[in-house]
Amino acid sequence: MEKKHIVVAGSGFAGLESAFLLRHYFKDKIKITIVSNEENFLFRPNTIYIPFGLDPKELQIPLKEVLPKYNIEFIIDSVKDVDPKASQLLTEKQKISYDYLVLGTGAAMRPEEIPGLKEHANTIWTPKEMLQLRETIQKIIQRSQEGKSTDLLFLVPPNNKCSGPLYEMVMMVDTYLRRQKARDHVNIIWTTYEAGYIQAFGPRLDEVVTEEFQERNVHGYKEYVVKEVQANKVIYENGQEIKYDFLVSFPPYIASVFYKNVPTDERGFIQTNFNDRTVKGYNNIFAPGDAGDFPVKQAFLAFLQADTVANKIHADLLNSEFNAGFDPVSMCVMEQFDKATFAQVPLRLTGNPQKPIEVDPNRIDEYKVGVSPLWRIGKKMLGMYLPMRFKHAEPFHAGAAWKTMEIGLIGMSSILAD
Ligand SMILES: Cc1cc2nc3c(=O)[nH]c(=O)nc-3n(C[C@H](O)[C@H](O)[C@H](O)COP(=O)(O)OP(=O)(O)OC[C@H]3O[C@@H](n4cnc5c(N)ncnc54)[C@H](O)[C@@H]3O)c2cc1C
Predict the structure, then answer these.
(1) Helix-helix angle 399-416:375-390, to 10 degrees
(2) Nearest in space to 276 (alpha carbons), one of 236, 240, 250, 307
């Protein structure tokens, strides 16, 4: 077989998983190049531990050391666009020709679209922002020790595409403040634009969070759509105002790269064909993960999409039938420090822009939720398993290691979720 060149833009979950699964399938029979603006892979889901003391360096994998060892070319450069007619990826410094192109450049935050949010909120996205949140938590503890009360407000605005981590954060903060004996002086308030808590994951997550908020004395408000953030209060579209001393938010999402030469939506997310994650109009360009238009942005879903991409390229190159289309059954473990919540959620698109995703009513038997301190072990296992795989350029979802991990998760969910 002639050596085909697969070019991958982005070195996050989607980019690396696509590249590693292709390397796993084809060994050295194809050429793989990864182009990224970051030297290190960041294990973003575990950045939730940074506000409570974790060193951000522990979440990074140095790709300059790893990738060349496995015969993957690694170029540090900023991707600007694609020239599909010339089959070239356009970067700041060069044009890179490809046979297949994987656009895994992910998402970015746009706090500016809500007046005052950037100026006044502690946001969660980068390790730097997580370190700022660590300082805020320490200030809250100090105020409690001085006997001062604090209003701590959490805010999910519209167009945030992955609210789960902010739910993790409110529950972790609650547990942490209790353990520091600083909770009594803190009034925790939660507001979200969503009609149900963690709306994308359906009614059972709404029930779990409602119970948790009651137990934890968190005052939650749904369908509170933020209008404006001021120095000490948030104003909502429904006319309500809520005062705060500290505000924590996860901003609206946009695409990291606004590609001009491939079809995108108004936020820059690349329009894809659902089943094989190809970019609309092109059969050799793919957009897995946060960069694409799937409405929920999640690492687990990025993995599933990246696997689909690698399987499609594999089938194409071998001239064989492609029968491993994208099946959006999400899985997550939500950390709360005293326990964790596991969810397996079969999703489907609705076609309704107001509520683009729902739990697939035809697959309710696959919708599983469980709350237990033991799920924290599941989260820890995933936190060890993924870096172990990626440090050796191995895909997350393949081989005996994944089979073992999967058996563990299925076993746990048969006992600890229903
Ligand atoms: C605090 C937090 C907790 C989370 N927890 C979970 C969780 O528990 N479970 C879960 O499933 N998901 C979780 N997520 C979501 C998850 O992190 C994202 O969905 C996931 O990172 C998406 O992967 P991706 O590869 O598509 O994008 P990314 O991981 O964002 O990777 C994008 C890549 O593209 C590169 N890039 C960007 N722009 C350019 C450019 N112009 N040129 C070159 N390269 C570029 C970046 O450097 C990066 O390498 C969490 C997110 C946050 C913020």
Answers:
(1) 170
(2) 307
Radius of gyration of the CA atoms of the chain, in A: 22
Question: What does the block give as tokens for 96?
Answer: 């890179």
Atom of ligand 1 nearest to the CA of 299: 11
Structural domains in the chain, sorted by start = 5-109+254-416 (3.50.50.100), 111-251 (3.50.50.60)
Q: How far apart are CA 54 and CA 198, in angstroms?
A: 26
pTM (whole model) above 0.85: yes
Q: What is the pLDDT along the chain (418 residues), one digit of tens a residue?
A: 569 999 999 999 999 999 999 999 999 999 999 999 999 999 999 999 999 999 999 999 999 999 999 999 999 999 999 999 999 999 999 999 999 999 999 999 999 999 999 999 999 999 999 999 999 999 999 999 999 999 999 999 999 999 999 999 999 999 999 999 999 999 999 999 999 999 999 999 999 999 999 999 999 999 999 999 999 999 999 999 999 999 999 999 999 999 999 999 999 999 999 999 999 999 999 999 999 999 999 999 999 999 999 999 999 999 999 998 999 999 999 999 999 999 999 999 999 988 899 999 999 999 999 999 999 998 898 899 999 999 999 999 887 778 887 888 788 888 888 8
Nearest to 339 by CA among 200, 174, 228, 191: 174
* Burial class of residue 232, CB neighbours in 10 A (0-12, 13-18, 19+): exposed
The neighbour count for residue 112, using CB atoms within 10 Å, is 13
Our mutation pick for probing the ligand 1 site, out of 162, 293, 334, counting the most ligand atoms within 8 A of Cβ, is 162
User: Measuring from each residue's beta carbon to the nearest atom of ligand 1, which residues come in under 6 Å?
Assistant: 9-15, 35-38, 44-45, 47-48, 78-79, 104-106, 124-125, 162, 165, 256-257, 289-291, 297-300, 302, 332
DSSP H/E element including 400:
helix 399-416
Pair 89, 261: CB distance under 8 Å: no
